[in-house]
Sequence to fold (201 residues):
Amino acid sequence: MTILTRDFFARPTLTVARELLGCHLVREVDGQRLVGRIVETEAYIGPDDTACHASKGRTPRTEVMFGPAGYTYVYVIYGMYHMLNLTTEQVGFPAAVLIRAIEPLAGIEAMQVRRQKTNHSLVNAVNLTNGPGKLCQALGVDKGLNKWDIVAGQKLWLETGNNISNADVATGPRIGIGYAAPQDQMAPWRFWARGNRFVSK
DNA sequence: ACGCTGATGAAG
DNA sequence: TTCATCAGCGTT
Fold:
C-alpha cells in the first residue's frame, strides 16, 4: 500500500472524488489501526457551488478549503455529528471531497466500541460506517483533526486500495443540500461503489 | 415522520 | 446578543 500524496489531491475535485473510491482510509488512535475502504464520496467545488460552504466566502470555518490540497476539513453538523472532508485543487480555489461511507476492513471491534459510546447499543458491521457522521464516530474523528495534514502518514491518512472500475462506479445528486441552487442540487457529484452494501442509506 | 443537538455566521 | 440554519442519526 502506498500513501496518497499531495499531488493526488491537488487535482480537479471530481477526479479526486472518483479516484478515492476503493482507497483505504487509515486512522491510528489509542495504539490501534482502524481501516476502511472508501465506497461513497461527494465533491464540493469552489465559490460558485452554492452547496459548498466556501461559496459564502472565507470564514474561520471554511478557511482550510482555501489552502493547499491534502488537508482535512472537519466540522460539526446538527450539533452532534462530525463530517470528514479532504481538501483538493489549488491554493485560493476552495474545494473538498466529503467522505460519506467506508467499508470497515480492520479494527472493527474498536469501531463498534466508539459507536456504542454514543449509540448506547451494539452496532452491526453494516451500520458502523455507512454514513458521514457514523464513520467519524467509528474512527474517532472530531474537530481536533480539523486542518490535519493527511499526507504526512500520522493519525489519519489514505492509501491506495483496489481500484474500482468505471462500470462499478455510480454517480448521482448529492445528499442533504436542499439549501443550494437548483442546478447545484442536480449536479451528479456524488460517487459510490455500485451495489456495495456499505453505501449510506 | 420526528426530535435531538450545538457550532456557525449573519443580523441587530 | 439573539436568531435561523444545518454535507445526519436513531427511534417511532
